[in-house]
Amino acid sequence: MRRIIRFVDLTFYASFALSVKKLPVDIQSQLKNVLKDLIKDPQPKKLRMEKLSGYKNPGIYTVHITSNHSHKMSFEIDGDVAVLRTVGTHKEIDRRP
Length: 97
Fold this sequence. Notes:
This protein is α+β, with helices and mostly antiparallel strands. 31% of the residues lie in helices and 29% in strands. A 5-stranded mixed sheet has the order 1-5-4-3-2.
């Protein structure tokens, strides 16, 4: 059975803000759309949300922010708040979520 999650708010670490500034402008625009989608539907199929194994407390999740899967974002779920960790290329997020 699929667990239903609803986010009341999004918050972020300082590292998230720094990693957003490093992104190209077009990727930043796509990220804004992904954040809006997460508030509307926290588990949208098109973003391919996945829970990373090996991270229990807190659990770390990732979503794709580009349609070609070149960039991802990682976040934690703290109650009904999504805590944004970092954003970057698929390879960067897989190495250090």
